[in-house]
Amino acid sequence: MSRFVGLVGAVVAVLLVASPVQAETPEGAWEIEAFAGWSTGRYDDSSIVGLRLGKSFAPGWVIKGAFGTFDDAEGKYGHDQITLDVSFERHFAARQRHQFILSMGPGFATSKLTMGGRNLSNDTLTAHLGIGGKIKLGGAVHLRPDLRFRWYEDQDDRDAELTLAINWTF
């Protein structure tokens, strides 16, 4: 976890000294996203679905809350997980229609796992770091691909999550 803290510190430093850019998301705007995707790494490959709600609090910055559910796709372990995350996102507008996004933040995960006929539960704090984009489809609607890495406090486990979202900014 200490290597992760160092990595997050380096990313924050880069974000804080980065020159201001014109952000497509105006300050004070709200964002709603519905996402789906795939996760691999902790127990098994899992499908992901969820919702995110965010608010732009400064030019180029968005704070976002997320709720996601992970379902064990292979059925090997009978694993289901729910995550609650807070993300701090830095949006870099390369063009008016496209943005590059760096995101990071803390979270919480609760898991139910069935192994060898035994039911196990696990609640843990998490941290995530990700990269993504925002592609304007028209009006206030965007397509949002993301790749996130999640670390779990209680173990040396981590996973990678690849998601695609529909974003509505208002």
Tell me what you see in this structure.
With 170 residues, the protein is mostly beta strands. It is 9% helix and 68% strand. Residues 15-23 have low confidence and may be disordered.
Topology order in helix (H) and strand (E) letters? HEEEEEEEE
Radius of gyration: 17 Å
Largest sheet: 8 strands, antiparallel, barrel
What structural class do the secondary elements suggest?
mainly beta
Please work out how many helical segments DSSP would assign: 1
Neighbour order of strands in the largest sheet: 1-2-3-4-5-6-7-8
Give the helix proportion (percent range): under 10%
Shape: elongated
Distance between the termini: 37 Å
Strand count: 8
Beta fraction: over 45%
The overall average pLDDT, rounded, is 82
Q: Spans of 5+ residues with little confidence (pLDDT < 50)?
A: 15-23
Write the layout of secondary structure elements.
Elements: H1 2-17, E1 30-40, E2 46-58, E3 61-72, E4 80-95, E5 98-115, E6 118-138, E7 141-152, E8 158-169
Antiparallel strand pairs: 1-2, 1-8, 2-3, 3-4, 4-5, 5-6, 6-7, 7-8
What characteristics describe this protein?
9% helix, mainly beta, elongated, 8 strands, 1 helix, 8-stranded antiparallel barrel
Task: Give the gist of this structure.
With 170 residues, the protein is mainly beta.
